[in-house]
Amino acid sequence: MSFVKLEAVINGLNGEIVIPGDKSISHRSVMFGAIADGITKVTNFLPGEDCLSTISCFRKLGVKIEEKNGEVIITGKGFDGLNEPSEILDVGNSGTTIRLLLGILSGRPFFSSIIGDQSIGKRPMTRVTEPLRTMGAVIDGRKNGGYTPLTVRGGGLRNLQYKLPVASAQVKSALILAALQADGESTIIEPTETRDHTEKMIQHFGGEIIKEDQTIRVKGGQKLKAADVVVPGDISSAAFFLVAGAIVPNSELLLKNVGLNPTRTGIIEVMKAMGAKITLPLNEQTSFEPYGDLFIQTSNLSGTVVEGDLIPKLIDEIPIIALLATQAIGRTVIKDAEELKVKETNRIDTVVNELKKLGANIEATDDGMIINGPTPLRGGSVSSHGDHRIGMMLAIAALICQTELTLENPEAISVSYPKFFTHLNQLKNR
Ligand code: SPQ
To answer: Which residues are near ligand 1 (CB < 6 Å)?
Structure first.
């Protein structure tokens, strides 16, 4: 098992970094480029392992995709341009790839089989496969189509009237992508609003989607037209540096080009409620996805409650919010976040177990965690458990540990932020 030894930062963090492309938007840019007609140019595409898995799957489906100097060029020929793959589609570690791909393949009149890594093998697929079967897709797999490996024989979809049992942008997106290929109009209702990149992208590619509160209507048989995409920086990646800037003494960081879609900015709301000195947005820009710069300074923090409708807006930031809470005065309660149990790891257990090893006062609950702070963190041996967000959270924890921290399996971080350690080292004052 590989590991990296990390030390506390002595003179604070200072400087600026440009946050790499958003993972969710990068995935969708390739998928929409593939199902649209014409040439789509994507700039600031995230070359993380997950997004490269999406490219690899669409190449196996016969789509021409070139990568040149940080740009991705996709030659789409519409849904009908996708061909039966002769190879198995491997999604690696990417939940977004498999779930959205299932939606697309459900409408295609051919056979495909999908696998992923060990972590994907534990993530529930019934939430997607069950409604897609209702639409007419023939899907099979381990545990009756609940887990990988999965096979799909698609085509001839009926429209769907469906209320999602969980708040999930991946399930919503899979169903929207299937609905685009179905007969008639589908209605999809979300229990709570989740990230809306798929909806925004349909409109950007010339399609029609109607959204009234949590109700989404999509007509089948739509043709999408190629459109260039400029991917904003990933707020879920910026979150690690926002927290680092707030908890490391003598720090001032400028994070450039951060995506500020309101369905993703829960971390900013929570940090502000805890007393973090964040200034935003400097230079806010609006393309089809808003973005801007964020400035963060070392802050005096107090505990808070994170719950309800806010959870989907920061679901991937909960590991780093937990670390933040260890440095805040008082109690932080995170609830309504059961979904954390079905991410790359069970993120309630991994966050609690790894932070406990460092001396944090943190307890797991059924739907989240309770953290009492502030607690000094000691160093020691911890592991990413193959989960990129846990790996990055622990690497940020190392910055304030009293002794050296050994992080096992740091490679997992490349799933979403291959330049993470380069950026971190650039910001350290020597
Ligand atoms: O793609 P994957 O592996 O599911 O990635 C994660 C992450 O931490 O990067 C979750 F583990 O992000 C999901 C996110 O949790 C990405 C996503 C999307 O792009 O639509 C939506 C969220 O998942 P869900 O299940 O709540 O829809």
So the answer is: 23-24, 50, 94-96, 168-170, 173, 195, 315-316, 339, 343-344, 389, 416
